């Protein structure tokens, strides 16, 4: 018997059939059969969509899953093709990937690192998935990215905003299309300066975990560069539901801007509480008190209801964008599901397409070929204008949207309006930027 | 055999057979078939079955025997995992020292928490353990990030010092966990006709540890010490007036079950070198309580069954999606197919929690003794006998 | 000084929610001897009563507005709630605006009914079963209840604002010359909690029914020997406990948008509160609720965090441990309740 | 010198002086009864002897050693076994296991981490337990669940468990309370037999005069927390103070 690394079910599915009947046990070894993990040898290729289906981010996960299903349809040549028509690369022909029909398996990350890894492992070991994608938090993204690196499959991150994902925890087999905390801050800062001036005192409330810290670090650096003074930064427990005892001290702190470095349920509650305490009507130092939410999500904005009105933040993508790619995607998605897609859905859809395209351009499912095809890849027609996958850290660079909670929404989806599209050059940073320091990309791992 | 009576020996043999042949038993359906979805014979899940089996067996030594309901046992599992990962980072990728350290650290941690918590009994004890575990979780998530790496979880990096071993392999990746050179992730694939079976080194290490842990638990159940623990549960007053000090007995049970949890945590990290803080959350502690009660508290095999049951649902049912449902029911006429899928839909995929909740209720309502009682009833029914009468079954509660 | 007063108010407010949930939990412990892990779910169901009422009131007719387009470029469908059509925009909007207070009327019968069904249909069969079985079955029930809610309402929080008139802030300190600004609805919540708590106490103290229940809590067998059907009264107490939790949930919705797992968030904390207060003691539960609420607020102040990093994350558990070690049966617990 | 010497023991609960200046001497191998009307402080005194309560004043010496401040299990290890008013046995365990536990406590002391050996291979323990079951006439019930025994059998089991430790002093707290006449007589016979056949001291707290006068060869009468008299049974019977104490109660 010989040893193999990680199991390979994909090849066995067809291999076993040829072995046939009640033949004597045949022992397969990866070395002789294939050069990389889960090499799809039949007529199909399996992708793993690992999204939160239970817990606080279940709705976001459901939207991601919808986007993936749409992407699979388009890849297999069903439906209207969506962004395949606007994508600058034309390697995909609507006949699956490299002629293999795309199939998928789904799993539940539960927004827990352990569960997400278990689910991804089962996709790799049991279902023979060649690529894992999805997720709604940075902890999960980093954990699954690490797993994929070890197992030798590609990871296309879903919604993950922490600097660490392509900073100190970056991995050669992982790619992130979503923007990050640094880019949010870089995009927001000039807009905030225009709106609120350069003489402001900011008070930060920050979710007490890694994403929150990188968000705080980024926005603090960006606003201080404008001349803003940081009055205080306070960490709030992730499990907190009532933020009143953190909001109350803001009232008499002398600050005139409150920055909420919160996401998801934390953001909904802290914003609601802040508005309850009358912060939006408050006057400090002769100026209107302002609230800023650096990372916005439409799904979460909905949870905060009226409270988001007039509040600025940044977002990766929004359905109201008028470029051809976005319009095509919104049309496909809206026609199929009856409502516009979220930014998480957009990222996941694009990630699936980008992976397929990279395989097609490289002509192989081998992760190293995919990595090579994606590194330094520049494309257009997927929303957010010209986009680059930087080779050095596998971070995507594209335009970032600054948005504001809409005063007079016309429908339940029409909650945010785009204030400014910050061009890519403004949010770029050098690879060795201190906020992204530490960690190494390593080299691509094909698994075998 | 093995110093056990006939009944216990056969129980142990059953467990040995089940664990060693798990790759076959858990993969009953041919790979290509629609029912392959229900196959659980892949390394990660098999490892989880064994690891949570160990965790639950250990928990049962405390809860099943002494009746002390700890709501913070996940803390020991978490501490075990962290210790193991630190061992990988600093010492070597060999799992043996890592596992030994996790058992020791978890045991010490249990000694401290147990010493304080066991000053109270009943629900006051439960809340004390819960409070300690939640404190560990909250701090691991935030303030202790330098040690625990917070939300992301402690993982290996390309620049770990690793005294006995290499920082990174020749091709620039992180070395993998091994037992004296045998890699935990290496897997043999065996194809028989349309089936294929996976034999994973890591799983077999877990399986051997499970068998050892299970054997030890039988010995403890049948020992004078085990009898004293049952006496603690039955009547502490009498115990004290019989010249026995119940405190060290319960503390010993607490530490032993904490060490089992640490062992499970160390194994978990050995299979997958990452330790997340959620492992210590109260829901994780609650899970092992549920496993034990579901399987049958105080019975030997029950906790293992309960652990398997819950992990199966978590990993298999959560992965069934509408697409798969449609492929199963595609033989039906279109309208009926959609209707059946619509009916089943709430219980699979994102609804796996619902299914689990319903099953909890059904089991506890209809099988008061947990899954073990279900097994006994089936066995009794097969033999055509009525259930053995109450005295018999009560005097020998450790089936 | 102001900061301290504000934090006391915040603490009383958090404490109100803890106290209301803990009160119901203790009633159930004390009367039925059941460990009810589904009690958090009752709080959550109460909150979703408010959501449901809001949904009913905003049931709308769709009319096409050809002037505007939706996100796909089709003519925009404008929704007008029926109540606006029936009563005119002013009254209609006012009714929708007051949906949370209106939901109280709706929640009381619903919650009592839920309580009765739970007790008669399920809990009743578990009186004589071990606590472990009670935990398993009520935990299963809690999961089922929250998954059902998730199925119908999704996982995202749903905004349920307070009436416009009660949505602002009030300057509480104006009378004494302090600048003490506090949200009106939170004041309402605190007063409401006090009202409910005193209502429950008065009911138990001054009615014959309450006296029998109290006697039953102290010694179930003796009361049974008097030929009084204590079980039926206990069923009613379960309904009352469910209603208290439900009302706490309804009124909580404007403070934080409800979501399907909010019950679990409160469950563990309220267990800690009940135990710190002392098993079987109603005043203990209320006292512990307010005490822990206030301590939690103080611990989140900056000087506390600077003094002991992370104290805001663990304060409740730390206090629970200290109290239980100093006072073996919590603040006001009776001997022998749930000690074995 | 008696085997148990109680000197000047006093105990106060809030405003109530439960015991004051209690002196008592239990002679080796005697059957010593402590009687008194309700509220006389019998139970308080007993609890002071076994370590459940610590008296405010005075001393309790067992075989020359003080028992004060010791835990119940330590006092038991010194050689004092206690039988409760309502039988305290291990209800979830079998009768045989109930009998084995005190034997193990006798052999291994108050704590022994004997976690690997099999219970069923502790032949010495099994032998002692089986022998005691025979003596108690309970051998046929050895596999029964102790909770399902009759009240009288539970009492026998409890007494047997205490005896299997070969204590030097056996304390009985109203051992026949709530028993039917026949069971009471059986218990009296059993205790008589024990005191005749074994080298053991018995101290008994009792309400029932029939039991006391059938068994005791020395009696202390307590009233209002104070010892009234200590004497032989025949002298107690005619003592006017005792009559007064009891009549006072019954009137």
TrEMBL record, chain A:
InterPro entries: BCAA_transport, Leu-bd, Peripla_BP_I, TAT_signal
Any matching Pfam family: Peripla_BP_6
UniProt domain Leucine-binding protein: residue ranges: 44-406
Annotated SUPFAM superfamilies: Periplasmic binding protein-like I
PROSITE patterns: TAT (PS51318)
Keywords, ordered alphabetically: Amino-acid transport, Receptor, Signal, Transport
Superkingdom: Bacteria
GO BP annotation list: amino acid transport
PANTHER family in alphabetical order: LEUCINE-SPECIFIC-BINDING PROTEIN, PERIPLASMIC BINDING PROTEIN OF ABC TRANSPORTER FOR NATURAL AMINO ACIDS
Family membership noted in the UniProt record: Belongs to the leucine-binding protein family.
Protein name from the UniProt record: Receptor family ligand binding region
Organism of provenance: Tritonibacter horizontis
UniProtKB/TrEMBL annotation, chain B:
Source species, domain of life: Bacteria
Membrane spanning residue stretches: 12-29, 49-71, 91-116, 123-144, 201-221, 248-268, 288-313, 325-348, 354-372
Membrane topology: Multi-pass membrane protein
Protein name, as recorded: Leucine/isoleucine/valine transporter permease subunit
Principal location listed in the UniProt entry: membrane
UniProt organism field: Tritonibacter horizontis
Keyword Protein transport: no
Keywords: Cell membrane, Membrane, Transmembrane, Transmembrane helix
Metal-binding as UniProt keyword: no
Coiled-coil intervals: none
Molecular functions (GO terms): branched-chain amino acid transmembrane transporter activity
InterPro entries on file: ABC_transp_permease (IPR001851), LivM-like (IPR043428)
Any Gene Ontology CC annotation: plasma membrane
Lineage: Bacteria, Pseudomonadati, Pseudomonadota, Alphaproteobacteria, Rhodobacterales
Subcellular compartments: Cell membrane
Leader peptide range in chain numbering: none
TrEMBL record, chain C:
GO cellular component, one term: plasma membrane
GO molecular function: transmembrane transporter activity
Keyword DNA damage appears in the UniProt entry: no
Transmembrane segments: 15-35, 42-61, 102-123, 189-213, 233-254, 266-291, 303-326
Keywords tagged on the record: Amino-acid transport, Cell membrane, Membrane, Transmembrane, Transmembrane helix, Transport
Compartment annotation: Cell membrane
GO biological process: amino acid transport
Main location: membrane
A Pfam family recorded for this sequence: BPD_transp_2
Membrane topology: Multi-pass membrane protein
Similarity comment: family membership: Belongs to the binding-protein-dependent transport system permease family. LivHM subfamily.
Name this protein carries in UniProt: High-affinity branched-chain amino acid transport system permease protein LivH
UniProtKB/TrEMBL annotation, chain D:
Superkingdom of origin: Bacteria
Family annotation (CDD domains): ABC_Mj1267_LivG_branched (cd03219)
GO molecular function: ATP binding; ATP hydrolysis activity
GO cellular component, as recorded: plasma membrane
EC id: 3.6.3.-
PROSITE patterns listed in its UniProt record: ABC_TRANSPORTER_2
ABC transporter domain: residues covered: 4-249
Keywords assigned: ATP-binding, Hydrolase, Nucleotide-binding, Transport
Keyword Iron: no
Family annotation (PANTHER family): CONSERVED COMPONENT OF ABC TRANSPORTER FOR NATURAL AMINO ACIDS-RELATED (PTHR45772), HIGH-AFFINITY BRANCHED-CHAIN AMINO ACID TRANSPORT ATP-BINDING PROTEIN (PTHR45772:SF8)
Protein name in UniProt: Lipopolysaccharide export system ATP-binding protein LptB
Organism per entry: Tritonibacter horizontis
